[in-house]
# Entry
Amino acid sequence: MEKLNQYNILLGHVINTAIKAGNEILKVRNSIDINARLKQNHTYVTDADMNANKVIMEQLNLLNLNNHAIVSEESLIPERLSKHYVWLIDPLDGTSEFVRGGDEFTVNIALTEGGEVVLGVVYVPVTNELYFAHKEIGSYKYVGEKLNYTDLLKSSTKLPYTTTEKYTIVASKLNLDKATSFFIENLSEGKDVEYANRSSSLKICMVAEGNADIYPRFNSIFEWDTAAAHAIVKFAGKNIYDMYGEELQYNKESLRNPFFIVK
# Structure
């Protein structure tokens, strides 16, 4: 019961934080200039990424979690390997989509304990879609305006809420490398392939919802790209596996994820 209450308190705070970050992203989206520029790794960053990151860092620091590390794509990485509790943050997952003027971008916030995800929130600011989960309650989706946490649970749909009529593979044509193409070609006979140019987190959430059966990813992304959605899919009864069939782990020496399959 104590653990349940702790997770509920943290999740309520994180949901509010994600919504506040989403509001900052929409402010930039509606401004004259989003100030898009390339980072050293040749990916985009904008004022929306940085403003959302500032809000999230400030809100998590209000929790006074001195024994936790907070790792964000847009902040300096703190000492973390000795920490049992690590937050993994992507303040704007899908920045390229955001720069192009699309809607399929998210705010991702996750908590890991001992390398395993235990809590996650994925929020889509444009559509007010909110995915949230922790290990004691399972995974949920809510669409609509902000509610307090108690009412939110009552008004949300438990995941998975549907099943595919045909076995469906989800992938992105923007990131369709040779290994992923080969995997899909060998798996797709008599099966549907849905090419969704959405963020990785939303493709993972499609599996959690039941709208897709499998999502293969054979090019490298970081822990903050998957952790929040991993919680959603895991506590919906599915999972993310590496090529050895082991559950994806976090706070590794390298923050790069190995290749993985969501199913």
About this structure: Residues 2-158 form a domain with the Fructose-1,6-Bisphosphatase; Chain A, domain 1 fold (CATH 3.30.540.10). Residues 2-29 form the longest helix (28 residues).
